[in-house]
Design brief:
By secondary structure, the chain is of the alpha/beta class. 40% of the residues lie in helices and 22% in strands. The chain contains 11 helices and 12 strands. The radius of gyration is 20 Å and the shape is globular. Bound molecules: 1,4-dihydronicotinamide adenine dinucleotide (NAI) and magnesium ion.
């Protein structure tokens, strides 16, 4: 069968890691008897400078025709960050109601990290993706005056918490059976106490899954000290964002961490993207690590019903990572994005 994928390369290293990934996905799908048919969309910083918007007004309708979207990254030093982040990626997550952001992190043989050798990490962050601290509620009052205020209101709805929580418990069942809810319900008395309550209710439906509630500051320490014990981390929007960069580094770096934006309860396109941003400090040098994007592509193949192709991508990435001469700069090597990608295609 043919899988239609909308591709948004975006800015900075986005186009570099996306173009390294597409041949891998094509080869893996082909091996599984399928084809990947891509339509490229030129949304992002360039589009913003040309039209005043990061994506066209009918962007959501365009995407609705596809089962899946592969997204690189947005962000340019010459455009205010919030314009592009809200104008594209957060905008799409909210407009398509992509309620759950899934971010797996694992260690890879051959990739050295800051963790002690035998420890390693194998966990999934499940992040509520549409509200919480990123709900977009608030404003700037009395601009320029000494009384100026920036108000940012966090919104936590029972419905959104339940969706993310259910997803986390189902996922934990297919893994090591443990959910760690991450909150700050000691200092924040309304939103995160609701998370604790909803999680306790949902947990009753999954007696085979162990769960705990951990304060985010304690979780930051635990991630560094004993990551091996963690299985599924269930987070609100802000804490999930922060902890996923920390976890990504423990798994080998920002260049290694994939993600999926999903809506489990409806038929909308799912969006797959590396956790990292546009990395302007290395953009254009041809040295970006494409693993995060390739693994996001593997999640995409799983999502569209090609699990064998997804496994082929992961196996080929693992194979290439075992060879230090193929490591890109962020893993301490000298290989270019292209060289690494060619090795992965060959391994597929
Ligand atoms: P970043 O993730 O782009 O970069 C952080 C560090 O990780 C940099 O040193 C960068 O070189 C490195 N890095 C990131 N991806 C890499 C890769 N594939 N290979 C090797 N090294 C890599 O985060 P930063 O610097 O905070 O943000 C840069 C821009 O990206 C900003 O405009 C920001 O708003 C945007 N951004 C966009 C996101 C998205 O599109 N989903 C997510 C995060 C940031
Ligand atoms: Mg982030």
């Amino acid at each position: 069968h043919t899988v239609r994928v909308a591709v948004i390369p975006g800015d900075g290293v986005g186009p570099e890691v996306v173009s390294a990934t597409l041949p891998v996905l094509r080869a893996a799908a082909h091996r599984a008897g399928a084809e990947v048919d891509t339509v490229e969309l030129d949304w992002g910083g360039e589009h913003y400078l040309r039209t005043g918007r990061a994506m066209p007004p009918d962007a959501v309708d365009v995407l609705r025709g596809f089962p899946a979207v592969l997204f690189g990254a947005v962000g340019r030093p010459d455009i205010p960050d919030h314009e592009l982040i809200w104008g594209l990626i957060i905008g799409l997550r909210q407009a398509l109601d992509l309620a759950v952001n899934v971010r797996p992190v694992r260690s890879w043989p051959g990739v050295r990290t800051v963790l002690r050798e035998p420890d390693g990490i194998d966990l999934v962050i499940v992040r509520e993706n549409t509200e919480g601290e990123y709900a977009g509620v608030g404003g700037r009052l009395h601009p320029g005056s000494p009384r100026e205020l920036g108000v940012e209101v966090a919104v936590h709805s029972r419905a959104a918490i339940e969706r993310a929580t259910r997803y986390a418990f189902v996922l934990a069942r297919s893994r090591r059976g443990r959910v760690s809810l991450v909150t700050k319900s000691n200092a924040m008395r309304y939103g995160y106490t609701l998370w604790d309550a909803v999680c306790a209710e949902v947990a009753r439906e999954y007696p085979d899954v162990e769960w705990e509630s951990v304060l985010v500051d304690a979780m930051a320490a635990r991630l560094v000290q004993r990551p091996r014990d963690l299985d599924v981390l269930l987070c609100g929007n802000l804490f999930g964002d922060i902890l996923s960069d920390l976890a990504a580094v423990l798994g080998g770096g920002m260049g290694m961490a994939p993600s999926a934006n999903l809506r489990p309860d409806a038929d909308v396109p799912a969006l797959f993207e590396p956790v990292h941003g546009s990395a302007p400090d290395i953009a254009g040098l041809g040295i970006a690590n494409p693993v995060a994007c390739m693994l996001s592509g593997a999640m995409l193949l799983d999502h569209v019903g090609l699990p064998e192709a997804a496994t082929a991508v992961r196996d080929a990435v693992a194979h290439a990572l075992r060879d230090p001469s193929l490591h890109p700069a962020d893993l301490g090597g000298t290989a270019t994005t292209e060289r690494f990608a060619a090795a992965v295609v060959a391994a597929v």
